[in-house]
Amino acid sequence: MNVNMLVYLAIALACALLSSKIMKLIKLPNVTGYLLVGLLVGPYCINLIPADIVESLGIIPKVALGFIAFSIGAEFKFSYLKKVGKAPIIIAIFESVGAVAVVDIVLIALGYDVAFSLCLGAIAAATAPAATLMVVKQYKARGPVTETLLPVVALDDAVALMCFGISVAVAKAIEHTAGDESIVMTIISPLLEIIAALALGVIFGMIFRFAVKWFTGRGNRLAVTYAMVFVCIGLGEMFGLSSLLACMALGATLVNTSSVSDIIFEQTDRMTPPVFMMFFFLSGAELDIAIIPEVGVIGIVYVLARVAGKMLGAWSGAKISHAEKNVQKFLGFTLIPQAGVAIGLATTAMSVVPDYGPKIRTIILCGTVIYELTGPVITKLALKKAGEIKQ
Q: Which CA distances in Å does 377 have to 28, 274, 334?
């Protein structure tokens, strides 16, 4: 008998809700429970939800990431950025480039191929904002570390895209697989993609602003919000742009131009938890722990080197920008999670550097399993140590 798709969705939500109760008892973040229970009932463990069902529910992660990016965009309020100053921009650049540099240097020093090291190192820059944002919301974290963290993870993926484009271009040059013109275009393309994605978000952000003036009912405004996020995701995918950056620009434009933006974001926060639950549940279901033994030493090196680079870069950026002591001390610990963008770049590597693509993707998937299961817990502990999660 074929089970209806809605039954699988009900199972996902029921399992996620039950896991949140268990996590509360053992004092771990809810997102960790969603990932673990997804892994347990997914196709790679007891197979209660088969692989083809997980694949067919692919629209849920897209929608969830879109709303997460939209929420992060709210952190780019000009009045707020004036208050926090240049620190988040400097830190985002340093922690991203720091992760790339440390992974590159360590892999090359250990004798791995230079082109391979550059491609793998470039993906190290990406950080998953979803898990971090969920921890911040669950524990209502407030303080300098949290205020710096949110814009940093929002900027992070823009830096990661540029690092990847440049590193791949250099790798191609080393391997003599591309002409000068294609190398230049490979470097320029990520920059153009970032600009186009941000422009898309700004355009629909202005439309959003006028729409919420016209539609004043709470239900109508919520419908407008869904429509705007959906169109940014959809057009981003159609034109090969980053839907994350587009949705982030959408949120940033709204928060800076609309007097009712606070109401819009509050409504969105109330309506999106079930979507986030299903997203993390499905993320857990997609994690294949059987791949861990396949990557061996290089996987361990990548995981540890990336964490070291993130922490060193975050500390350096915070020090240079004269951020508060707690930001210098704890911010690096909150930048460990890695998922969507990194997997996307690893998939891209399959086509742009086919000699290394499969190996890179396996390493990134392995890293994702480790980062997504440990990252939220470490983020919670860091924010608690910083005094930004109250008992």
A: 6, 21, 9
Taking only Cα atoms into account, the Rg of the chain, rounded to an integer number of angstroms, comes to: 20
Please return the burial class of 79, using the count of CB atoms within 10 Å of its CB with bins 0-12, 13-18 and 19+: exposed
Structure tokens given for 340: 């969507």
Please state, in angstroms and rounded to a whole number, the distance separating the CA atoms of residues 74 and 150: 10
Element (H, E) at 136: helix 129-138
Q: Which residue has the tokens 């159609």?
A: 238
Question: What does the alpha-carbon distance between residue 333 and residue 378 come to, in Å, rounded to a whole number?
Answer: 6
Question: What is the DSSP code string of 306-333?
Answer: HHHHHHHHHHHHHHHTT--HHHHHHGGG
Most confident range (mean pLDDT) of 47-56, 183-192, 345-354 is: 47-56
> What does pTM read for this prediction?
0.72
* Predicted confidence (pLDDT) per residue in 243-265, tens digit: 777 888 899 899 999 888 888 99
What angle, 0 to 180 degrees and rounded to 10, lies between the N-to-C axes of helices 261-271 and 243-257?
A: 140
Closest CA to 122 of 50, 195, 172: 172
Residue, of 107 and 291, whose pLDDT is higher: 107
